[in-house]
Design goal:
Structural class of chain A: alpha/beta
Low-confidence stretches of chain B: none
Number of helices of chain A: 10
Radius of gyration of chain B: 18 Å
Largest interface: A-B, 19 and 16 residues
Strand content of chain A: 15-25%
CATH architecture of the largest domain in chain B: Orthogonal Bundle
Number of domains of chain B: 2
Number of helices of chain B: 15
Mean pLDDT of chain A: 90
Order of helices and strands of chain A: EHEHEHEEHHEHHEEHHEEEHE
Number of strands of chain B: 0
Distance between the termini of chain B: 41 Å
Helix content of chain B: 55-70%
Low-confidence stretches of chain A: none
CATH superfamily of the largest domain in chain B: Hypothetical protein af1432
Radius of gyration of chain A: 25 Å
Oligomer: heterodimer
Mean pLDDT of chain B: 92
């Protein structure tokens, strides 16, 4: 009997579908998590599950290869071939004989497998890991691989709920769009990768394991730090970014310190070199209750930071 | 035909290098720095810029496609900011030191550092932006010689013997033995490692700056730097000859003899400081 007193490593209750004719397997799975954390819906036959899978996709799908009406691989593929369900983690349960021939995992797109016989604790951790891995993969920004919106919101809400003091910084780039328009999006991506690297390394250079960097998307980044260190972090991000970004321009533009382009109306316009604007909000003594408050204050501060064409940071001084 | 075969096999061996060793002096100093997590990247950069192999490793890593901006970074300081402490420490702890040829390599390390110093001075006198980047180009201009010594020890020995026997420059002896020089080897390395254009140009054109299509000014600065540091006989780059000074390089930089003299005076002062570095 596995110990269900520990909290699993995911943040909310998971709905799992189990498609298997093996009652013993189903009973074992049900003992692995408390019902507060995992809710099972069980199907003995594959075909009967598919419609519900599409209508109410669960958080996790466990498919047995012992199904009689349809192969486990086929069930998995019917889900994974649809882009809207692709993120659903699928674990295939197999017998040793199923492993005689190597599988082609490019055509059977499951996320993990279990081979009988396995111990209950092995199954528990294999499945926990599958769920966590799916969350990481789903939320990571495809360019920078930094955590994306879901993780950012979760992290902020978690700190608010725990009433921990923190500073939340929103960064974005000024004149990124004009750079992209002139040099093309792959040169723009280079700048975003550089920016991500500058922020990550700056934040990592400060002590405290709780520092966090996320990539909202495009040229928007977020970082979380202890309140007393955030100003120095902003200064260092600004300094490094300003020193490095000129090298992402062609030599002539770098020398001029600006780019000149003609817009669709035929008007010649000038744009300064890119700069980074940072708006910082503080949650001190648990004054915030919801993540929305943090982002609302940050957005109004960002306008202020944007008024300055040079790189700069604005701290929320309200107390 | 035989020449072609030699070139192909040499190129394969040169590009196969994945653990370029260095000399212990600078490596030990940087190792101490990275043991302390409080060390700033500026402090680490100020030491790494003295060592051609460590500098090459930093630029190779930060310009690799993994980081997403190949060929953009030619400053060691910027490279270190973008790599971060963890990766820098990884580079340092995985770097080995020469167990042979140490004496010969010391001369080459001094020559490279001298050329870096001279290139920085010349770039500043010529009024160019970012003179540090010219210094980096100067530092790496003979990297191909290090790679030859490590990857092609037998051919390297033959080159050294030819220098001695025929009283040739190292560059001429390379052409005798290999059919091409370290400038060609540099060009292969620079392209393979996605180094920025200015550094690649100087590495492959410092003997023939008048032939450079791109970054001619960088090539001319390093050409002049190499010439000056040889005049001072600071370090050694495989022979004890002076190199041919291309008048086109002087012209490109708008240098007169008086400019040369001013640069030489400044270089004489700075080489005094630089000679304190032990490799």
């Amino acid at each position: 009997m596995a110990d269900v007193s520990h909290n699993p490593p995911f943040s909310h209750k998971q709905r799992a579908f189990v498609i298997s004719p093996d009652l013993e397997l189903v009973e074992t799975l049900k003992t692995l998590w408390s019902s507060e954390w995992m809710e099972f819906t069980v199907f003995e036959r594959g075909r009967s599950a598919i419609e519900l899978l599409f209508n109410e996709p669960p958080d996790l799908l466990i498919v047995d290869n012992r199904l009689e009406d349809i192969s486990g691989a086929e069930v998995a593929n019917s889900v994974k071939s649809e882009n809207v369900y692709r993120q659903l983690p699928v674990v295939l349960v197999m017998d040793h004989e199923d492993m005689d021939e190597p599988w082609d995992w490019t055509t059977v797109e499951v996320d993990d497998f279990l081979v009988r016989p396995f111990t209950p604790s092995e199954a528990r951790d294999r499945i926990n890991l599958t769920i966590c891995r799916a969350m990481r993969a789903l939320d990571a920004n495809p360019l920078s691989k930094l955590p994306g919106n879901t993780s950012i919101i979760q992290r902020i809400q978690l700190l608010i709920d725990k009433k921990e003091d923190f500073a939340l910084a929103y960064c974005d780039l000024d004149y990124f769009k004009s750079f992209n328009d002139k040099y093309g999006f792959s040169r723009g991506d280079e700048v975003l990768m550089m920016t991500a690297r500058v922020i990550v390394n700056t934040i990592k250079s400060f002590p405290g394991g709780k520092n966090f960097v996320g990539h909202v998307g495009g040229d928007d980044f977020v970082f979380i730090m202890p309140p007393d260190l955030v100003e120095e972090a902003c200064q260092r991000v600004v300094q490094s970014f300003d020193a490095i970004v000129p090298h992402f321009y062609d030599a002539a533009d770098r020398k001029q310190g600006k780019i000149v382009s003609t817009d669709r109306q035929g008007v010649v316009r000038e744009f300064p070199l890119m700069a980074v604007s940072i708006a910082v909000v503080f949650n001190i003594d648990g004054r915030m209750e919801h993540f929305g408050e943090a982002s609302a204050i940050a957005m109004s501060l960002k306008k202020k930071a944007k008024e300055n064409p040079k790189s700069c940071y604005v701290l929320d001084r309200r107390t | 035909m035989q020449d072609m075969d030699l070139k192909t096999s040499v190129k394969g061996q040169v590009l196969a290098i994945n653990d370029l060793p260095t000399l212990p002096g600078v490596l030990d100093e940087v190792t101490k720095l990275v043991e302390n997590p409080e060390t700033s990247t500026e402090e680490i950069a100020s030491v790494i810029v003295k060592d051609q192999v460590l500098s090459a490793k930093v630029l190779k890593m930060v310009n690799s496609p993994v980081y997403g901006f190949p060929g953009r970074i030619s400053s060691i300081q910027h490279g270190l900011v973008l790599l971060g402490f963890n990766v820098i420490r990884g580079i340092i702890i995985s770097t080995s030191v020469f167990d042979m040829m140490v004496q010969a390599m010391k001369g080459l390390w001094e020559h490279s550092l001298g050329c870096a110093t001279a290139s920085g001075i010349i770039a500043r006198h010529a009024g160019f932006d970012d003179p540090e980047e010219y210094a980096v180009a100067g530092l790496l201009h003979d990297l191909g010689k290090v790679v030859t010594a490590v990857q092609l020890p037998e051919l390297h020995q033959k080159i050294l013997d030819t220098v001695e026997k025929k009283n040739l420059s190292y560059y001429r002896a390379e052409k005798d033995i290999l059919g091409f020089g370290h400038d060609r080897i540099n060009a292969w390395l620079g392209r393979h490692w996605n180094l920025p254009g200015n550094i690649r140009a100087a590495m492959s054109r410092h003997h023939s700056p008048h032939m450079a299509d791109l970054y001619k000014s960088t090539c001319c600065v390093v050409h002049l730097g190499d010439f000056m540091v040889r005049l001072f006989e600071f370090g050694t780059s495989g022979d004890d000859q002076t190199s041919y000074l291309r008048p086109e390089a002087m012209k490109e930089l708008g240098f007169k003899m008086s400019d040369m003299e001013r640069c030489m005076d400044e270089l004489a002062d700075q080489l005094l400081d630089v000679s304190d570095v032990t490799f």
